[in-house]
Design a protein that fits this description.
The chain contains twelve helices and six strands. It is an alpha/beta fold. It has two domains: 74 residues, 434 Repressor (Amino-terminal Domain); 192 residues, Endonuclease, Chain A.
Length: 276
């Protein structure tokens, strides 16, 4: 939200001091708004959009919707704050909890919202960086809490494109993987879940070097946030121009992938191979 306000200001050729004068405030307030440090009031957003020459009602409405979602999120003391999970995961979960829709491209593992407890546990055990092995159960419990959003009255919508490698990576052995793949097929039947598989036979593609998530907080066209985990660090992309690039890449992946129906058939065929 702050990044978008900054982009609009720069595009309009305005300074932070000029924006502050429009709000009858200090430049410090504008700095805090553009860095996402403070909740934003609707009158301030409307005033700045007008000052920046943004007269598209849809654009202004999307900004107001995003600001409302942020204010609501700040009111809630999320369960994630009481866990012992790594700070980067807590940060991501807080943002995911405010999202209405997630588009996810995953290269090597099953998406967290789809993982069975035993798959999560097997994946966590493989990580040698744990200083306290008991914290693995925090990760398992956290996955279950996140997955509850898939079954709410107004559930999180998720569209996942998964590379074939994630289906065949033997995490925890054939039994664990077989049950995980069966769970994927079950989730694919939910109306708010769309799963596609990009098979090996599709060949090269522009996203072969990394996974990413696109989190949406409003209707189509609203400002999205892109999240990526890179080894021991996390990258957030929070401006409209760059996030639109990832949205385009995701659409290309989805068009190249199997249809949701054929994907479910493919997942089940891999499951059967593992049980033989």
């Amino acid at each position: 939200m702050g990044g978008e306000l900054q982009r609009l200001r720069v595009a309009a050729g305005k300074t932070q001091q000029q924006a502050a004068e429009t709000l009858s405030a200090t430049a410090t307030k504008v700095v805090k708004m553009e860095r996402g440090w403070v909740p934003m009031r609707d009158p301030d957003i409307k005033a700045l959009c007008q000052f920046y020459g943004v007269d598209d009602a849809n654009v202004v409405g999307q900004m107001l919707d995003l600001a409302k979602a942020d204010r609501e999120r700040r009111k809630v003391k999320g369960w994630w704050n009481e866990t012992q999970m790594p700070a980067t995961q807590v940060e991501y979960i807080a943002v995911e909890d405010a999202a209405l829709k997630v588009r996810q491209w995953q290269l090597a593992i099953i998406p967290g919202l789809f993982q069975t407890p035993e798959y999560t546990r097997a994946m966590a055990v493989a990580d040698i960086s744990w200083d306290n092995i008991d914290r693995i159960e925090d990760i398992v419990a956290g996955r279950a809490q996140r997955q509850a959003r898939l079954h709410e009255d107004e559930p999180l919508r998720i569209h996942a494109v998964i590379w074939e490698a994630a289906l065949r990576q033997m995490m925890g052995g054939p039994g664990v993987m077989g049950r995980q793949l069966a769970h994927l097929c079950h989730l694919a039947e939910l109306p708010n879940v769309q799963i596609q598989v990009l098979p090996f036979r599709a060949g090269g593609h522009p996203c072969i070097c990394g996974s990413f998530n696109i989190l949406s907080f409003g209707d189509d066209g609203a400002v999205d946030v892109v999240h990526m985990d890179v080894l021991r660090s996390t990258i957030w992309i929070e401006n409209a121009t760059e996030s639109a690039v990832y949205a385009t890449l995701f659409d290309q992946l989805a068009r190249t992938s199997l249809s949701p129906y054929d994907s479910a058939e493919f997942i089940d065929s891999v499951r059967k191979e593992m049980s033989e």
